[in-house]
Amino acid sequence: MPRPSKIRRICTEPSYDNFGPIEKSCTGQPKITMTVDEYESIRLIDLEGISQEECAKRMNVARTTAQAIYNSARVKLAECLVNGFELQIAGGNYEICDGNAACFRHSRCHFRAETIKIAEKKENIMRVAVTFENGQIFQHFGKTEEFKIYDVEDKKIVESQVVATKGKGHGALAGFLTENKVDVVICGGIGGGAQDAMKQAGIKLYGGVSGDADDAVKNLLEGTLTFNENIQCSDHHHDHHHDHHEGGCGDHGCGHHE
User: Fold this and answer.
1) What stretches of 84-134 show up as alpha helix (H) in DSSP?
2) CB 201 within 8 A of CB 178
3) DSSP SS3 for 147
4) CA–CA dist 48, 38 (Å, integer)
5) What is the 8-class DSSP label of residue 94?
6) What is the spatial distance between Cα 137 and Cα 201, in angstroms, rounded to a whole number?
C-alpha cells in the first residue's frame, strides 16, 4: 500500500485558475488540470527564479518530490500550449503557509502578505499589531515591512495573520494601523515622531520589546509584558524596562471595543 503524499506548503492559491486559447472554442477539447502545488512549483522556479532545492524547502517536501511536481506541471503546460487544451488549476494535497514556517524564513512570504486582506474588525475585539520579521519582533518601527495582527477577545487570541504594510516611513505606517483599526502596537525601537503619531491615533504603544512575537502578545494579555517607556530607534538596550501590569489590556478592556 503506497504511503500518502506529504502535504505541500504554498504561499497562496492562484488568483486565476482557468486558461484557454482565444482563437477557437474549447468545446469538446480535453481539459488539463494542474494541481495547486504544481502551480506553486511553476511560480517559484520559473517566475521567482529559485532552484528546485530551494523550492523544495519552501514547499516542505523532498527535493526529488519538488522535481517531480515541477516536471508534471511543465508537461501539462506544454500540452496546453501545443495542443490548445484548456488549463484548469485545482485540487492537490496542500496547505497555505501561515507566515511562520520555513518558506517565510527563506522568502519572507511577500507574495502571500501583499495579497492577503485584513479581516474586518468585529465588535468586542482588541486588535494588536506587532512589528514582524521571521517570527520575531522587528526592531526598527519606521522600516517595518510586515505586521502580525492579532484579534483578541476576552484576553484570548481568536485570530492572527501576517500582512504587508504597503508603505514605509512613520506616517505611512501610522495610517496603515489607523485604517485597520489597531488598538495596540508592540515594537522594538521607535522614534519620537512615530510615538506622537501613535498617540494622536489613540493607539497604545509598547516599545523596546524583543523576542518572539506570539510570546509578547501572550505576555501582554497576561499582564507580564516587559517594555521600555522611553525607547527610541537608537536605543535597543532596554535599560529602563517596566513590567506591564497596567495601562495595557486594562485600558482597552481586552473584551470590549466599539
Assistant:
1) 102-107, 110-115
2) yes
3) strand
4) 15
5) E
6) 22
Mean pLDDT of 100-113: 48
Indicate the pLDDT class of residue 169, thresholds 50, 70 and 90: low
Task: Answer yes or no: are the C-beta atoms of 184 and 254 closer than 8 Å.
Answer: no
C-alpha to C-alpha distances, 155 to 54, 63, 217, 245, 246, nearest whole angstrom: 39, 43, 10, 14, 14
For the segment 140-148, the average pLDDT, to the nearest whole number, is 89
184 contact partners, CB below 8 Å, separation of at least 6: 126, 127, 128, 129, 203, 204, 205, 206, 220, 248, 252
Helix (H, G, I), strand (E, B) or coil at 228: strand
Length of the chain: 258
User: In the numeric block, which cell numbers belong to residue 45?
Assistant: 522556479
Nearest to 9 by CA among 52, 48, 46, 58: 58
Considering all CA atoms of the chain, what is the largest pairwise distance in Å, rounded to the nearest integer?
A: 73
Band (191; pLDDT cuts 50, 70, 90):
confident
Summarised one tens digit per residue, pLDDT across range 195-251 is 888 898 899 999 999 999 999 999 999 999 999 987 765 443 433 344 444 444 444
